[in-house]
Amino acid sequence: EPGGVRALLVVGSNPVVSSPDADRVEAGLKRLDCLVVSDFFLSETASLADVVFPSAQWAEEEGTMTNLEGRVIRRRRVFAPPTGVRTDLEILSHLAAALGRSDRFTHTDPAEVFDELRCASAGGPADYSGITRERIDRAQGVFWPCPAEDHPGTPRLFADGFPTPTGRARFHPVHYEPPAESPDAGFPLFLTTGRLFAHYQTRTQTGRVDRLREAAPEPVAELHPATAQRLGVSQGDSVGVATRRGRAEFRIRVSGGIREDTVFLPFHWGGSQSANQLTNPALDPISRMPDFKVCAARVERLSIDGEGS
Predict the structure, then answer these.
(1) Are the C-beta atoms of residues 235 and 224 closer than 8 Å to each other?
(2) How far apart are CA 300 and CA 243, in angstroms?
């Protein structure tokens, strides 16, 4: 606020800096009066923080979670956190006390937080009020929403109707629009990015596992055999991948599983091999999601001295 302290608390900071606007995001974080990060490894973003709260990992704290099928399940502690490491609940409780708001956040047990969620959600679309920890234990999970303790839960949310006045679904036509940037003579290929089986996000966790690191030790550009032949490159050669935002160098993998007009890059690495430094920062007009998946690119064969040819 005007005249106030510009502060930000980030919980789980892996992807914040590794974005298409990484330089702008990093500059914004550095302008803060105080940046606090809560994480269990020192990520790129955490390295910029004024204060880092070491937090417990998922196997080091109790709680509940709602999985992708809508089943609310228990999460039980397997190991105690290392000395000096607090759970998210403990961190929030201590922060509330330090800010003079301990009366607003008095929870010391995850069960109390879940009971508050049950009360707060009662009567709403996301109703947890009928789910108790004891019931979760008995049933090996309860499907959400569940508005009463004798309610069976909702394994299929829209099996009998939809949340509209008529109970019927509404269909909307979607008209195709081309990507914000398409290939041309200067950048004749599509660049698309994605994840690898061995890694997650920016490898803050998976990069510490020997077997995963050995399975995918570096980012590799994937090209179709016909495209590689046209460029005069072979499996394992180094190439430059360039877009209107910048250029980076990668070794290549030749694969028949990719289109001839496309080059694929994994997004798990940062620094000089950050795929997201090349992608288009254009935003979807509705979701405001960045255009990670498609932009125009060219692949340059490297000569012996490392210069493009």
Answers:
(1) no
(2) 11
Q: How many whole angstroms separate alpha carbon 256 and alpha carbon 241?
A: 19
This prediction has a pTM of 0.77
pLDDT tens figures, 91-103: 888 888 888 988 8
E strand or H helix at 116: helix 110-121
Residue located via tokens 């990668």: 250
- Give the residue from 247, 257, 228, 226 showing the smallest Cα distance to 307: 247
Q: Are 200 and 212 in contact (CB under 8 A)?
A: no
pLDDT tens, residue by residue, 254-280 = 999 999 999 999 999 988 899 988 999
Angle at 219 between CA 216 and CA 222, to 5 degrees: 100
**Cα 193 to the center of its chain, rounded Å:** 14
End-to-end CA distance of the chain: 52
